[in-house]
Amino acid sequence: MTLHSSIDRVTDRIRERSRNTRDSYLKKIARAAEDGPRRAHLSCGNQAHAYAAMDDKDDMATTRKPNIGIVTAYNDMLSAHQPYERFPDLIRRAGHAAGATVQVAGGVPAMCDGVTQGRPGMELSLFSRDVIALAAGVALSHDCFDSALYLGVCDKIVPGLVIAAATFGHVPAVFIPAGPMPSGLPNDEKSKVRQQFAAGEVGRDALMAAEMASYHSPGTCTFYGTANSNQMLMEFMGLHLPGSSFVNPNTPLREALTVAGVERAAAITRLGNDYLPAGDVLDEKAFVNGIVGLMATGGSTNLVMHLPAMARAAGVLLDIEDFHDISESVPLMARVYPNGLADVNHFHAAGGLGYMIGQLLEAGLMHQDVKTINGTGMDGYTAEPRLDGERIRWEAGSTDTLNDRILRPVSDPFARTGGLKQLDGNLGRGVIKISAVAEERHVIEAKARIFSDQEQVKTAFRAGEFTEDTIVVVRFQGPRANGMPELHSLTPTLAVLQDRGLKVALVTDGRMSGASGKVPAAIHISPEASTGGPLARVRDGDLIRLDATMGTIDCLAEDFDTRKPVAFDPASSSEGMGREMFAAFRAVAGPATEGAGVVV
């Protein structure tokens, strides 16, 4: 199928924009790879230190068996990462069977936004991505590994690991998922209880019972937020094995897929005939495919910020216009909560990513001719994994959706576009996701209420101060102000106001993830207020027009452009809960439109 003209045009634009940086990157990883397998160049003393604790130290010192390094984000506080506790032993056995040796190269931190929502710790969340990249870099700096396995699932973890994999782009990389937890209390019922609690209609006991019934076992949360968007992304970009993203933890199929991933990691090293450095996988076509998947599934807006940072590590320069243009061409094919009632388990059962990839390829909406760890182009990702004894056999996936209330073909989508819009105006540049927003709320013109943090919004709500249509402006939430925390805890409050018949919207230089749903939210506004950006000039009562249809965001006050910006006071977010240690990160973080990066 001929590539869609818009996808072709955006890819060419990215390629041209990235010509110099990508060329420099490819030369860098070629230099790193040219002297062959890494550990052969270590001195005997260096090697003895590296192998001292290993049972197979003789193999490591005297043979040419590939040595696989594991970079793991295991902890048992994150339900999505708890299954990784068992993975190193399984990977060692699989590696030995495949003629390789295996070492845990190092661990990286992994924090849960679901735990830190609305708390001071959330101000460390975005920067944890860069810490993860740095920690993975330290793990790989021993220069002992012929390929690397990356164990990570959730919000900042996968982007941080991809940044590291790209930086060590001469080392082949395989990402190993852990899978979503089985379905619990339906997400829409959980959301309803949250809104009832916010409105004072139920007590904390009912809220706690609903939350525990929803988040109830090992595995990723089942709504389609950033964590599950990450898993989709790794499959669409060819870093997972086909059909592996949404298989539940602790099942025979999950274990067999992990074994198969180890076998691929052993097969694609420079020691064999199928050398596949990570940097060759992570090209402009792979990133375009990732954006296509984000739009077709209605994925998290956090990836609009993470993908530019990930791409930059591989010498590829993305802009939010790329997301906008791809969104305009790629239809919304899935309804997964918060865009629908289904969860990721239902999506997977309906045909999942394999069906979707097949449809997009047939329509020319994604690149087929890419390098993947599967050893094929993207057509190999239309297959489904099946157990054949204890091993994996891939067979042709369904060419028909198995539930058209959850998953639809390109020819009959839920919406013509992916629902992500670029916003531009005198308030700056940002994005809005409208796939779950009712059409009558795509344009809102209302007076502004100005807040400097989300707790102020909740206090005003409890005081009954919202009695008319309102644009809620929460500023000083950018990366240089306070680390750009997730503002998802505002969702129940704003949803209650909307359900009362008010037109409300959020405008912020902070984040509001893809789990946020039906309230219009203009997010990632840049330049951010703390650097003198336009949001710092907005006043209470100003008329603001948010027009997702035209892609504009403007303050209509006549004197707006001549006002002096309000100064940012960092006192409330400069210390406590480790925030003082991240002052250096806040000082140098890039703009959200470029990924809010520190190390890239």
From TrEMBL:
Gene3D superfamilies, alphabetized: IlvD/EDD C-terminal domain-like
Domain spans labelled Dihydroxy-acid/6-phosphogluconate dehydratase C-terminal: 406-596
One Pfam family cited in the UniProt record for this chain: ILV_EDD_C
Annotated catalysed reactions: 6-phospho-D-gluconate = 2-dehydro-3-deoxy-6-phospho-D-gluconate + H2O
Binding site for [4Fe-4S] cluster: 154, 221
Keywords: 4Fe-4S, Carbohydrate metabolism, Gluconate utilization, Iron, Iron-sulfur, Lyase, Metal-binding
Required co-factors: [4Fe-4S] cluster
Enzyme class: lyase
Cofactor note: Binds 1 [4Fe-4S] cluster.
Gene Ontology MF terms: phosphogluconate dehydratase activity
Domain Dihydroxy-acid/6-phosphogluconate dehydratase N-terminal: 65-378
EC number(s) on file: 4.2.1.12
Pathway of action: Carbohydrate metabolism; Entner-Doudoroff pathway
Role: Catalyzes the dehydration of 6-phospho-D-gluconate to 2-dehydro-3-deoxy-6-phospho-D-gluconate.
Family: Belongs to the IlvD/Edd family.
Descriptive protein name: Phosphogluconate dehydratase
Protein source organism: Paracoccus maritimus
Lineage: Bacteria, Pseudomonadati, Pseudomonadota, Alphaproteobacteria, Rhodobacterales
